[in-house]
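[[Encoded backbone]]
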Amino acid sequence: MVRSSSVSGIALHTGARATVRIQPAPENTGIIFRRVDLPGKPEVRPLACNVVDVRRGTTIADGKAIVFTVEHIMSALNAWHIDNCIVEMDGMEPPIVDGSSLPYFDMIREAGVVEQEEPALTFTPSQPVYVEGGYTRLVMIPGEGPLRISCLASFKGCPIDPQFHEFTLDTEAYRTEIAPARTFVDYGDLKQLLAMGLVKGGSLDAAAIIHDGAIICKEALRFQNEIVRHKILDLIGDIYLTGRRITGSIIAIKPGHPKNVELAGALLKEIAASSPQMKNRETK
């Protein structure tokens, strides 16, 4: 990255106002989240081994450095192929903005991206990796070239159900096909989420609501199948918790953060077994 760039706004779950600033970093730094609002500015790496909560978002922590809902930032970083940067935050959760990753994608574009001399770290598993739970099924198939995701999403009461989309990770295609897709919630889940102390900053400015056969949002849907595209957006962010550019194909049936992170964790363990440097991070 050439220079720093920032995004400010209200966080989805905490409801607090926060600013995220992405700073350039030298080669071999990796991605680091830094809590500049805390004494000592503690840091946490966005790796599956540091995930501590997957309720309606992916939360990472290392000691006092806790960061909620990292998936939209991580998705944009993955789409831009950013291997080294510092994500500075003055709170525990990044702004939800419009509920998509587009503001973060554009923030990175504003900062500028530069090639570094060290080769990018990529990974494909030695054999297919499969995780399942409830209605969710995920399989990672080894392969060369950009990550390809085939995703099926299904939500009772959604006017278009099920929804299916395929996407091959490419920076500019991500900008038009995936980044604008907004987060969503089923109306029936809102009471439970509020009782859990979540979605304090939620509004129709930042999310779509599925209710009684309709999707309620402040503006028209950006895609007919916006829900499944947002599921792909989240998966692109969660799979980057491996600390590597993943190659191959993912087939995802009703994915969500718990199994996305489990898949990333399985890949991270295989990476750690073959990389002493990553093993030290993974077992920290």
